[in-house]
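1st attempt posting a full record on here, be nice pls
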Amino acid sequence: MLFRSAHAVADAPGFGIAAGVGTHATATEHKDIDTFVAGGAVIDANGSVSIISRSRSRTDADGNALTIGAGAIGTTNSEAEANGAVRARLLGSVVDGINLTIEAESYASAEADADSSSGGLLSGVGAHPQALITTTLSASLDGSATVSGLLSITADSRASADADGNGLSIGAGALGAVRATATVEPTVNALIGSKATVSTGSMARS
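the predicted structure (as tokens):
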């Protein structure tokens, strides 16, 4: 099992007439995990076989901007992203097996926070946090399997994306804009290939 984390923080204060600051915090976790039995390989099991890929990841991006003064402007962008691929594959053969498990599993979280504050005549703030998860999971049997018990093929994605934006602007003619975006778009496949051969007592696919 692979566990990875990424964390980014950006802070910027600005003071004075027409002061301007901008922060951009980016945290990205990219994975490429592939557990497989190669084509042409034969496992004479006489027992149970497990082909498993598991990943745990966490990304956090935190941006903060503070400006004080007439005409002061502050902007904050934060981006937290988890992407990549987790694969478990049988390309070769398993013979005389009892149970066969092929499993790809991913737990991912992405959290982006953006805070921007300003004070003064004609001051302005902007905050744009973005949290994105686009992991690809694939559990597949493209070779051959002969087992007397259970054949289980599972691709399991659990993901959480959170984007939190806050803007505070105080003063005559003060302006503020906040846009928060959180997206979870995993691609999940559990499949048996068109050329695979399977002999099993029972089968579960999810």
